[in-house]
Amino acid sequence: MQKLQLHGFNNLTKSLSFCIYDICYANTPSERDGYIAYIDEQYNATRLTEILSKTCTIIGANVLNIARQDYEPQGASVTMLVSEELIDLHDIDISENPGPLPHSLLLHLDKSHICVHTYPESHPEGGLCTFRADIEVSTCGVISPLKALNYLIHQLESDIVTIDYRIRGFTRDVHGIKHFIDHKINSIQNFMSDDMKAMHDMLDVNLYQENIFHTKMILKKFDLKHYLFNTKMEDLCAKEHKRITNLLWKEMREIYYGRNIL
Protein backbone atom coordinates (compact mmCIF):
# COMPACT_ATOMS: atom_id res chain seq x y z
CA MET A 1 0.00 0.00 0.00
CA GLN A 2 1.41 3.39 -1.01
CA LYS A 3 2.03 5.79 1.87
CA LEU A 4 0.42 9.23 1.78
CA GLN A 5 2.57 12.32 2.09
CA LEU A 6 1.49 14.32 5.14
CA HIS A 7 1.66 18.10 5.16
CA GLY A 8 1.19 20.72 7.84
CA PHE A 9 1.33 17.72 10.16
CA ASN A 10 -0.47 18.08 13.51
CA ASN A 11 -0.74 15.23 16.02
CA LEU A 12 -3.83 16.60 17.77
CA THR A 13 -6.91 14.43 17.28
CA LYS A 14 -10.22 16.31 17.27
CA SER A 15 -13.28 14.10 17.50
CA LEU A 16 -16.84 15.29 16.95
CA SER A 17 -19.54 12.72 17.64
CA PHE A 18 -23.25 13.24 17.88
CA CYS A 19 -26.56 11.37 17.99
CA ILE A 20 -29.52 12.70 16.03
CA TYR A 21 -32.98 11.45 17.00
CA ASP A 22 -36.15 11.67 14.93
CA ILE A 23 -39.45 10.69 16.59
CA CYS A 24 -42.61 9.49 14.85
CA TYR A 25 -46.06 8.13 15.80
CA ALA A 26 -47.39 5.04 14.00
CA ASN A 27 -50.81 3.92 15.21
CA THR A 28 -50.86 0.18 14.46
CA PRO A 29 -48.31 -2.65 14.43
CA SER A 30 -48.45 -2.76 10.63
CA GLU A 31 -47.81 1.00 10.43
CA ARG A 32 -44.88 0.66 12.82
CA ASP A 33 -43.47 -2.10 10.63
CA GLY A 34 -44.04 0.19 7.65
CA TYR A 35 -42.13 3.01 9.33
CA ILE A 36 -39.17 0.73 10.07
CA ALA A 37 -39.19 -0.52 6.47
CA TYR A 38 -39.39 3.06 5.17
CA ILE A 39 -36.44 4.21 7.31
CA ASP A 40 -34.43 1.12 6.42
CA GLU A 41 -34.93 1.85 2.73
CA GLN A 42 -34.28 5.58 3.00
CA TYR A 43 -31.10 5.12 5.02
CA ASN A 44 -29.65 1.83 3.83
CA ALA A 45 -25.89 1.45 3.42
CA THR A 46 -25.97 2.42 -0.25
CA ARG A 47 -27.94 5.59 0.44
CA LEU A 48 -25.74 6.53 3.41
CA THR A 49 -22.66 6.04 1.23
CA GLU A 50 -24.11 8.49 -1.30
CA ILE A 51 -24.82 11.03 1.46
CA LEU A 52 -21.34 10.78 2.97
CA SER A 53 -19.67 10.77 -0.44
CA LYS A 54 -21.47 13.98 -1.34
CA THR A 55 -20.53 15.42 2.04
CA CYS A 56 -16.87 14.61 1.36
CA THR A 57 -17.11 16.29 -2.03
CA ILE A 58 -18.65 19.41 -0.50
CA ILE A 59 -16.05 19.68 2.25
CA GLY A 60 -13.18 19.06 -0.13
CA ALA A 61 -12.07 15.67 1.21
CA ASN A 62 -10.67 12.76 -0.76
CA VAL A 63 -12.26 9.37 -0.04
CA LEU A 64 -9.52 6.80 0.52
CA ASN A 65 -11.59 3.80 1.58
CA ILE A 66 -15.26 2.89 2.19
CA ALA A 67 -16.68 0.13 4.39
CA ARG A 68 -20.46 -0.33 4.53
CA GLN A 69 -22.93 -2.84 5.88
CA ASP A 70 -26.71 -3.36 6.15
CA TYR A 71 -28.03 -5.30 9.13
CA GLU A 72 -30.89 -7.70 9.81
CA PRO A 73 -33.54 -6.91 10.95
CA GLN A 74 -32.71 -3.20 10.44
CA GLY A 75 -29.97 -0.58 10.54
CA ALA A 76 -26.84 0.19 8.55
CA SER A 77 -23.26 1.45 8.95
CA VAL A 78 -20.83 3.30 6.70
CA THR A 79 -17.25 4.30 7.50
CA MET A 80 -15.02 6.40 5.24
CA LEU A 81 -11.31 7.08 5.56
CA VAL A 82 -10.64 10.47 4.03
CA SER A 83 -7.79 12.93 3.52
CA GLU A 84 -7.56 16.55 2.50
CA GLU A 85 -6.00 18.08 -0.56
CA LEU A 86 -2.96 20.36 -0.21
CA ILE A 87 -4.12 23.70 1.21
CA ASP A 88 -2.64 26.93 2.52
CA LEU A 89 -2.76 26.71 6.33
CA HIS A 90 -3.20 30.49 6.55
CA ASP A 91 -6.59 30.15 4.82
CA ILE A 92 -8.06 27.97 7.58
CA ASP A 93 -10.49 29.65 9.99
CA ILE A 94 -10.08 28.15 13.49
CA SER A 95 -12.01 30.88 15.31
CA GLU A 96 -15.04 30.06 17.43
CA ASN A 97 -17.96 30.80 15.13
CA PRO A 98 -20.67 28.89 13.26
CA GLY A 99 -19.50 26.88 10.30
CA PRO A 100 -20.93 27.44 6.82
CA LEU A 101 -24.47 26.35 6.03
CA PRO A 102 -25.22 23.65 3.42
CA HIS A 103 -25.31 25.97 0.41
CA SER A 104 -21.80 27.31 1.01
CA LEU A 105 -19.81 24.66 2.87
CA LEU A 106 -16.19 24.18 1.80
CA LEU A 107 -13.87 22.55 4.33
CA HIS A 108 -10.90 20.20 4.32
CA LEU A 109 -10.17 17.13 6.43
CA ASP A 110 -6.70 15.76 7.08
CA LYS A 111 -5.92 12.07 7.78
CA SER A 112 -9.44 11.56 9.04
CA HIS A 113 -12.56 9.45 9.03
CA ILE A 114 -16.31 9.93 8.87
CA CYS A 115 -18.74 7.24 9.99
CA VAL A 116 -22.47 6.86 10.50
CA HIS A 117 -24.57 4.15 12.14
CA THR A 118 -28.40 4.00 12.11
CA TYR A 119 -30.77 2.53 14.67
CA PRO A 120 -34.49 2.52 13.75
CA GLU A 121 -36.78 1.03 16.40
CA SER A 122 -40.37 1.16 17.69
CA HIS A 123 -42.32 0.82 20.92
CA PRO A 124 -44.07 -2.60 20.92
CA GLU A 125 -47.42 -1.13 22.02
CA GLY A 126 -47.32 2.64 22.42
CA GLY A 127 -47.16 3.65 18.76
CA LEU A 128 -43.87 5.54 19.10
CA CYS A 129 -41.02 5.02 16.65
CA THR A 130 -37.52 6.45 17.01
CA PHE A 131 -34.83 6.75 14.39
CA ARG A 132 -31.32 7.43 15.69
CA ALA A 133 -28.27 8.23 13.59
CA ASP A 134 -24.82 8.26 15.20
CA ILE A 135 -22.26 10.33 13.28
CA GLU A 136 -18.56 10.82 13.97
CA VAL A 137 -16.07 13.09 12.27
CA SER A 138 -12.50 12.67 13.50
CA THR A 139 -9.59 14.76 12.21
CA CYS A 140 -5.84 15.02 12.71
CA GLY A 141 -4.80 18.48 11.60
CA VAL A 142 -5.23 22.16 12.25
CA ILE A 143 -8.94 22.39 11.50
CA SER A 144 -11.81 21.49 13.80
CA PRO A 145 -14.60 19.15 12.63
CA LEU A 146 -17.00 21.51 14.44
CA LYS A 147 -16.92 23.60 11.26
CA ALA A 148 -18.95 20.84 9.60
CA LEU A 149 -21.55 20.63 12.38
CA ASN A 150 -24.13 22.97 10.84
CA TYR A 151 -24.04 21.20 7.51
CA LEU A 152 -24.41 17.71 8.95
CA ILE A 153 -27.29 18.59 11.29
CA HIS A 154 -29.11 20.47 8.52
CA GLN A 155 -28.96 17.33 6.37
CA LEU A 156 -30.91 15.30 8.94
CA GLU A 157 -33.98 16.94 10.45
CA SER A 158 -33.77 16.28 14.16
CA ASP A 159 -35.83 16.49 17.32
CA ILE A 160 -33.02 15.82 19.79
CA VAL A 161 -29.26 16.08 19.25
CA THR A 162 -26.49 15.17 21.70
CA ILE A 163 -23.02 16.36 20.74
CA ASP A 164 -19.57 15.56 22.12
CA TYR A 165 -16.34 17.23 21.08
CA ARG A 166 -12.92 16.26 22.42
CA ILE A 167 -9.32 17.13 21.61
CA ARG A 168 -6.89 14.29 22.38
CA GLY A 169 -3.13 13.93 22.32
CA PHE A 170 -0.68 16.76 21.76
CA THR A 171 1.47 18.29 19.06
CA ARG A 172 4.81 20.12 19.36
CA ASP A 173 5.76 23.50 18.00
CA VAL A 174 9.13 24.22 16.36
CA HIS A 175 10.62 24.88 19.83
CA GLY A 176 9.50 21.48 21.15
CA ILE A 177 6.74 22.89 23.38
CA LYS A 178 3.68 20.62 23.69
CA HIS A 179 0.28 22.03 22.69
CA PHE A 180 -2.82 20.16 23.87
CA ILE A 181 -5.28 22.40 22.01
CA ASP A 182 -4.71 24.72 19.05
CA HIS A 183 -7.90 26.77 18.90
CA LYS A 184 -10.14 28.66 21.30
CA ILE A 185 -13.45 27.10 22.29
CA ASN A 186 -15.91 28.13 24.98
CA SER A 187 -18.96 26.13 23.87
CA ILE A 188 -20.11 23.93 20.98
CA GLN A 189 -23.11 26.27 20.76
CA ASN A 190 -20.85 29.02 19.41
CA PHE A 191 -20.31 26.92 16.28
CA MET A 192 -24.06 26.69 15.55
CA SER A 193 -26.11 28.93 13.31
CA ASP A 194 -28.65 31.37 14.78
CA ASP A 195 -31.63 29.55 13.24
CA MET A 196 -30.57 26.27 14.84
CA LYS A 197 -30.20 27.87 18.25
CA ALA A 198 -33.57 29.60 17.90
CA MET A 199 -35.34 26.27 17.23
CA HIS A 200 -33.84 24.33 20.15
CA ASP A 201 -33.39 24.53 23.90
CA MET A 202 -29.74 23.74 24.68
CA LEU A 203 -27.66 22.66 27.66
CA ASP A 204 -23.86 22.52 28.03
CA VAL A 205 -21.69 20.28 30.20
CA ASN A 206 -18.04 21.22 29.62
CA LEU A 207 -14.74 20.11 31.19
CA TYR A 208 -12.48 22.88 29.97
CA GLN A 209 -9.35 21.58 31.72
CA GLU A 210 -9.78 18.23 29.92
CA ASN A 211 -10.71 19.73 26.51
CA ILE A 212 -14.06 17.89 26.64
CA PHE A 213 -17.23 19.68 25.50
CA HIS A 214 -20.82 18.43 25.51
CA THR A 215 -24.02 20.03 24.26
CA LYS A 216 -27.50 18.58 23.98
CA MET A 217 -30.48 20.17 22.25
CA ILE A 218 -34.22 19.56 21.97
CA LEU A 219 -36.89 21.19 19.80
CA LYS A 220 -38.84 23.97 21.49
CA LYS A 221 -42.04 23.16 19.60
CA PHE A 222 -43.32 20.94 16.78
CA ASP A 223 -46.31 20.54 14.45
CA LEU A 224 -48.09 17.22 15.08
CA LYS A 225 -48.97 16.68 11.42
CA HIS A 226 -45.29 16.12 10.63
CA TYR A 227 -45.05 13.32 13.21
CA LEU A 228 -47.86 11.04 12.03
CA PHE A 229 -46.89 8.07 9.84
CA ASN A 230 -49.71 7.14 7.42
CA THR A 231 -52.25 8.94 9.60
CA LYS A 232 -54.00 12.20 8.76
CA MET A 233 -54.77 14.90 11.31
CA GLU A 234 -58.42 15.07 10.23
CA ASP A 235 -58.87 11.38 11.05
CA LEU A 236 -58.09 12.03 14.71
CA CYS A 237 -60.26 13.74 17.30
CA ALA A 238 -59.02 16.57 19.52
CA LYS A 239 -58.54 14.16 22.42
CA GLU A 240 -56.27 11.97 20.28
CA HIS A 241 -54.33 15.03 19.13
CA LYS A 242 -53.54 15.86 22.75
CA ARG A 243 -52.76 12.27 23.73
CA ILE A 244 -50.32 11.72 20.86
CA THR A 245 -48.70 15.12 21.37
CA ASN A 246 -48.13 14.28 25.05
CA LEU A 247 -46.64 10.90 24.08
CA LEU A 248 -44.23 12.54 21.66
CA TRP A 249 -43.14 15.18 24.17
CA LYS A 250 -42.61 12.51 26.84
CA GLU A 251 -40.46 10.45 24.45
CA MET A 252 -38.39 13.48 23.48
CA ARG A 253 -37.82 14.56 27.08
CA GLU A 254 -36.83 11.05 28.16
CA ILE A 255 -34.21 10.91 25.41
CA TYR A 256 -33.03 14.45 26.16
CA TYR A 257 -32.62 13.87 29.90
CA GLY A 258 -31.46 10.26 29.55
CA ARG A 259 -34.00 8.81 32.00
CA ASN A 260 -37.51 7.37 31.99
CA ILE A 261 -40.31 9.68 33.15
CA LEU A 262 -43.09 7.89 35.04
TrEMBL record:
Main enzyme class: lyase
Entry's family note: Belongs to the prokaryotic AdoMetDC family. Type 2 subfamily.
GO molecular function: adenosylmethionine decarboxylase activity
Subunit architecture: Heterooctamer of four alpha and four beta chains arranged as a tetramer of alpha/beta heterodimers.
Catalytic machinery residues: 112, 117, 140
BP term (GO), one: spermidine biosynthetic process
Pathway(s) where this gene product acts: Amine and polyamine biosynthesis; S-adenosylmethioninamine biosynthesis; S-adenosylmethioninamine from S-adenosyl-L-methionine: step 1/1
Cofactor binding description: Binds 1 pyruvoyl group covalently per subunit.
EC number from the UniProt entry: 4.1.1.50
Swiss-Prot/TrEMBL site (Cleavage (non-hydrolytic)) positions: 111-112
Reaction it catalyzes: S-adenosyl-L-methionine + H(+) = S-adenosyl 3-(methylsulfanyl)propylamine + CO2
PTM comment text: Is synthesized initially as an inactive proenzyme. Formation of the active enzyme involves a self-maturation process in which the active site pyruvoyl group is generated from an internal serine residue via an autocatalytic post-translational modification. Two non-identical subunits are generated from the proenzyme in this reaction, and the pyruvate is formed at the N-terminus of the alpha chain, which is derived from the carboxyl end of the proenzyme.
Names of the cofactor(s): pyruvate
Function as written in the Swiss-Prot or TrEMBL entry: Catalyzes the decarboxylation of S-adenosylmethionine to S-adenosylmethioninamine (dcAdoMet), the propylamine donor required for the synthesis of the polyamines spermine and spermidine from the diamine putrescine.
Pyruvic acid (Ser) carried by residues: 112
Record's GO cellular component terms: cytosol
Domain of life: Bacteria
Keywords from the named record: Autocatalytic cleavage, Decarboxylase, Lyase, Polyamine biosynthesis, Pyruvate, S-adenosyl-L-methionine, Schiff base, Spermidine biosynthesis, Zymogen
The name this protein goes by in its record: S-adenosylmethionine decarboxylase proenzyme
PANTHER family: S-ADENOSYLMETHIONINE DECARBOXYLASE PROENZYME
